[in-house]
Write a structure and sequence with these properties.
Length: 94
């Protein structure tokens, strides 16, 4: 998701601290207190990670190349949501 703010703020509007990363359960707990503009973005991210997506991002679209930076550098100018538990990869050989 691209937006015109830095990401999801911790304790908005009382703080400008951006939450860089949070789990689905943590996000679920924050949903009732979110403002109307951020609520649909966060609900979409929550549905995505609970539906099997490994991570979802809310990116500050004003940052040049925000999407490219997130994909190539894995640095996110915004907030990243991840599932509560990350499935372990099978590293055994067949």
């Amino acid at each position: 998701m691209l937006t015109d703010v830095e990401g999801l703020y911790a304790n908005c509007p009382h703080s400008t601290e951006v939450i860089e990363r949070l789990t689905a359960d943590a996000l679920d707990g924050l949903l009732p207190g979110l403002a109307s503009g951020m609520l649909p973005k966060m609900e979409g991210c929550l549905r995505a990670v609970r539906g099997g997506v490994r991570r979802a991002h809310v990116l500050e679209g004003r940052v040049p190349h925000a999407v490219l930076r997130t994909v190539l550098d894995e640095t996110c100018p915004g907030t990243t949501m991840v599932p509560d538990t990350v499935p372990k990869r099978d590293t055994s050989t067949a």
